[in-house]
Amino acid sequence: MPKKFDDNWKRNSVTGCHNWKGRMTATGHGRFEVEGVWQFSHVIAWERNLGVLLKERQGIEHTCENPACVNTDHMIIRDLVVHTDSA
Ligand SMILES: [Zn+2]
Question: How far is the CA of 81 from the centre of ligand 1 (A)?
Answer without folding.
Answer: 24
